Hints:
By secondary structure, the chain is α+β, with helices and mostly antiparallel strands.
Amino acid sequence: MAEKNRIVVDGKFVVLLVALVILATSGSALLTSRLLGSTGQEKVIKVKNPDFGPRIEFETIVVNLQSLNSRSNRYLRLKMVLEFNNDKILKDIDKYKTILQDKAIEILRNKTAEELAGGEAQVNLRQELRKEFNKILPGDPVTSIYFIEFLIS
């Protein structure tokens, strides 16, 4: 009687079932890769890495900002890096570094915290500093100014 309730599984059936599972898995993986994968029509765009020029880092500058309200004292802490178009200026930069820092302090002290707030204001400040620095340095060598510290308090 014990043999009547026993389920007999044929070996061919097991092999067929395993093959069917493998086939279904492979098919779904192929279908998924086709639907979500590349179409083969994308273009590969090579981006040329920009060439960076020689750079110097200035000491941290801390200045009092102009205040619309005489009760509040606001200050700016700024550290910047100047990038030049060639190496020639690096030989003489020590002669100009003090003058450049003084010019930066002069420009920054005439700004308010509101004028310096926001990304567009920092872009404008970079342009203004670059323009003034290139007036001082021979040959307009300053190509970029990077702020590596910019804190208004």
